[in-house]
Amino acid sequence: MNFLSTVADEIVAKNDINLSNLHIILPTNRACYFFRKALVEKNKLLWLPTISTLSDWVEKMSGLKKIATLDEIFLLHSIYLQSGRAESLDEFLPLGRTLCSDFEELDMHAVRMEKFFRDLRNLASMKVYEPATELTSSQLDYLKFWERFEKLYTELRAQLLAEDKANSGMMFRLVADKIESISEGLNNFYFIGFDGLTKAEETIIKHLHIHNKAQVFWDTDAWYVKDAEREAGYFFRKYFKTWKGNMPYCENNLLIAKKNVEVISVARSVGQAKVAVELITNRLKLTDNNAINTAIILPDEKLLQPLQYLLPSTLSSYNLTMGLPVSRSVSGEFMLLLFKLHESAERLATRTKKHKLYFKDVVALFQHPFLKVFAKENELHQTIEEIRAKNIVFIPKSFFEKKEDLFIENILDSIYHSSDTSVYLSQISRIVNLLIDKFKRVESREIELEFLLKISDAVAAVSKPLLGATIQPKTIRALLSDEFKNYRVSFEGEPAKGLQIMGLMESRCLDFKNVIILSTNEGNIPSGKSTQSYIPHPLRNELLFSHTQRDAKTAYLFYRLFHKAENVFLLYDTEGNRMGGGEKSRFILQLQYELAKQNTKFSIKEMVYSVAPPEIKIAEPIIVEKNEALQQKIKDNVTYGLSPSGLSTYINCSLQYYFRYVAGLKEPEDIEENMESNTMGTAIHHVLEVLYKENIGKEISAEWVETIRKDSALITTLLKEGFSEKFDEEALLYGKNNLQFRLSLEMIYSFLANEKRRIEEGQKIKIEALETPLETTFGVAGMPVKIKGFADRIETQNNVLTIVDFKSGKAKNVILKEEEVAIITNEPALRVQFQLLIYAWTYLRMNPNLKQSIQSGIFWLQKTSDGFDNLTIESNSLLNENILQPFETELKKLLEDLLNPDKPFVQAEDIERCKYCPYKQICKRG
Ligand code: SF4
Predict the structure, then answer these.
(1) Does residue 665's CB lie within 6 angstroms of at least one atom of ligand 1?
(2) pLDDT, tens digit (0-9, with 9 covering 90-100), for 515-547
(3) Whose alpha carbon is nearest atom 3 of ligand 1?
């Protein structure tokens, strides 16, 4: 018998048929539904009890009205402004969202806030404390942030309570604090099927339980509860030990019952959905009449859409209450594409003062299947063709004026009038209404229509609080995109009929004969360690759920599904691209190596499901012979000058070099929406050059470095200057750009801290030159070949002249074995060493009279400790003409190869080399 049915039996046995004075509390709505059904099945004449979820009951008891998250963020923003900050809603949005979720979590765990804020301040000041140094302005800012955290929490709470409103966390804390008075006169509670409880939940349930007002039914199994090592029993062992009163409900199925488990590895989400569908149709032979005993569990909701599309028509009813967020629907995708088009048009307008559209966005939108349904397909196609044929990268409005489609006209119109909040919102709304109108008239499009109606609701929800406000369009888009994740369309048939599809949390209390769990990858089950939060880890671990406790909760949900199941299919993605990285969950390993060994009736099989690989068309090899014109072009190039990165490209693949440097084929163009590392590098170089300019020819002191390091205003201004070519100040305030900007600041501070440390440890650093060209001409095959590069800085380190390159990428080692010199011009992995050698070699050729050896090194800007690495050949960092002779020989061979008219440009044999190549489309290698 399943868990809910057993509990229903006990309750009926104890209370007879009049259950109307009982309060039954369960964790989910679906569990409530099935429990009610179980009671009715016992006796149709029952007087049913009150049945609700814990959240609903708490909300009722709190007497408060739940505030929508969006409204809460708006309110928090107004409080933020009152605290003296000037951030607009745009800037505040990501911060506000995370703060609201942190505040809610703190309340759910009934954290003592006075102590929490005290600990928070102590932690923050420990982090910025450095003996005998004054705090920099960014360190002071950091401290102030935490002070504001306290004020925001207190004020938000006060203002919400003044209006009889609260978020869910506040309601739980309030009811937990007053549970004694709230429960006065209340009796006969049954809490069924709960698992790891937050502090507030625990206080409520435990109080009612120990005062004999409630009976608690746990849905557990002895296998993981009795063994202190098993994480799934973590919370229950604590409750069983410390809660007095009624005996907990604990069965012993996992060790004795027969279970058939199949672990199936399959590539990609679609592959998993296909296997799941194959299992339900061919293996389990499900129809509408027998599917109720089968559940498909989706820990990752991304699989919902492929699964839904593949479900066979023989299963007309299925229960999918978890719903699909509109952001994942075709309509949602279309709206997000439209937003992208708006966004890049605005960015261009800010930079160039011209209203133009980026061709890629237009093409993506016009190719969207959704648009084809009602726009004139021919016209869309012709428009795309015309853009391509005329090679229009930025499309002016005039281009669309002769187009006839009213819908396209409306879509495009919205782009050119987006500066006014209410106008922009009404334009979005108009587009959605136009779509709704169209879809109402198209047959068999009910699902899209449902999604569009939800999108319309989301637009209305965002518009309401913004009435009369002046908000930038990008904030409106961010708010809408966020709401699209929250608004869902449920596909709910008759809940007690058909296949049950749900998330892991929703499966609590429910038992099925057949269970199919998708995405059983490490990183999904359990879900990895990343949490979007401002609460520092030490406090999070002490006061909220720690990682271990979160994993314990997931372990319980996973093993619970095995309680009554006879057949369990665990599918995992072999190409997982999230945290799981294609690995199966460790819980599967525990099943294999522990449970299967203890229960002889527990059979576990591993299978590989191979989806037929896509037909691969073998592309013709590309060979470019060096005809006379090409030979001349190559000669021109080498006379003009070859850079180390050009040579590295040639080493990687001669055809790639041809595309880039000979044919002049531009790398696929894109608007730089977020900073790329090149832009960051250029900006950081600019800052360091300006800061150090005054020291050319001088030895730098630790005091000077420290003075500079403290001048955060100067550093910030210079960094903005460094970015100004690509981004205006505003673009640096948001999202990824803002993060990268701050990362660049961090790199500069860390560079200066390292510099100071190097000097304090006794190194004498004299700046010889900054941003200096390095050039030499070299005779190869009777031709003068110019090699040219740029040294970021030339310094003397304890009297040894050192050429320094700043790199913002990830640090690599720069050690070279002697034998590796012979392969350096054929091994892309030695790219960094190649560059350092070429700098040293060029410098020595430029200064033939130099008698001393020199060094060539890198300052890794991302490395927080000891960022400097000098190239070493067999542990020797000193380089001179003799040591570099073998390198020169190899370099010469490489250049001879390039100049050789009989050697065509060919594709790299090793396909790994194509991984980051921008021309892989041409070569059909990716
Ligand atoms: S895709 Fe590969 S073979 Fe083609 S140019 Fe790039 S690196 Fe060379």
Answers:
(1) no
(2) 999 999 888 888 765 567 788 888 888 899 988
(3) 907
Task: Please indicate whether residue 655, judged by its CB atom, sits closer than 6 Å to ligand 1.
Answer: yes
Contact 925 CB / ligand 1 (< 6 Å) = yes
Determine which helix (DSSP H) or strand (DSSP E) holds 873, and give its type and residue range: strand 872-873
Phi, psi of 754 (to 5 degrees): -65, -40
How far, in Å, is the centroid of ligand 1 from the Cα of 909?
9
**Residue with the larger pLDDT of the pair 809 and 845:** 845
Report whether the peptide linkage leading into residue 526 is cis, meaning its omega lies within 30 degrees of zero.
yes
CA of 669 to the centre of ligand 1 (A): 18
Per CATH, domain 259-317+496-609 is 3.40.50.300: yes
Nearest CA to ligand 1 atom 1: 920
Query: Where does the pLDDT of residue 32 fall: very low under 50, low under 70, confident under 90, or very high at 90 and above?
Result: very high
Nearest-5° angle of CA 907, CA 912, CA 915? 90
**Ligand 1 center from residue 925 Cα (angstroms):** 7
What distance in angstroms lies between residue 828's CA and the mean position of ligand 1's atoms?
13
Q: Is the CB of 651 under 6 A from ligand 1?
A: no
Cβ of residue 923 lying under 6 Å from some atom of ligand 1 = yes
Distance from the alpha carbon of residue 886 to the mean position of ligand 1, in angstroms? 29
Per residue in 145-157, pLDDT tens? 777 888 899 999 9
342-359 pLDDT, tens digit each: 887 887 777 666 777 777
Please work out, in degrees rounded to the nearest 5, the angle formed at the alpha carbon of residue 147 by the alpha carbons of 146 and 149. Answer: 60
- Dump pLDDT digits (tens) for 482-499: 888 888 876 655 666 788
Q: What is the pLDDT of residues 158-183, one digit of tens each?
A: 999 999 999 999 999 999 999 999 99
Are 3 and 27 in contact by the 8 Å Cβ rule? The answer is no
Region 781-801 average pLDDT: 92
Dihedral sign, CA of 683, 684, 686, 690?
A: positive
pLDDT class of 854 with cuts at 50, 70, 90: very high
**With contact defined as beta carbons under 8 Å apart, do 371 and 365 qualify?**
yes
Give one DSSP letter per residue of 683-701, joined into a string: HHHHHHHHHHGGGTTSB--
> Are 552 and 196 contacting, i.e. CB atoms less than 8 angstroms apart?
yes
Minimum-distance ligand 1 atom for the alpha carbon of 653: 8
- Rg of the Cα trace of the chain? 33
Task: Please work out whether the CB of residue 919 comes within 6 Å of at least one atom of ligand 1.
Answer: yes
How many whole angstroms separate alpha carbon 411 and alpha carbon 338? Answer: 8
Residues in the chain: 926
Write out the two tokens for 704: 């000077």
Closest ligand 1 atom to the C-alpha of 659? Answer: 5
Mean pLDDT throughout 425-454?
A: 81
pLDDT tens, 884-896? 999 999 999 999 9
Which atom number of ligand 1 is nearest to the Cα of residue 652?
7
Atom of ligand 1 nearest to the CA of 923: 4
Higher local confidence (pLDDT), 698 or 303:
698
Q: What is the mean pLDDT of the chain?
A: 84
The finding on whether 907 has its CB within 6 A of some atom of ligand 1 is yes
Which residue, by CA, sits nearest to atom 7 of ligand 1?
Answer: 914
Interval between CA 658 and ligand 1 midpoint (Å): 10
DSSP-assigned states of every residue in 613-635: PPPPPPPPPPEE---HHHHHHHH
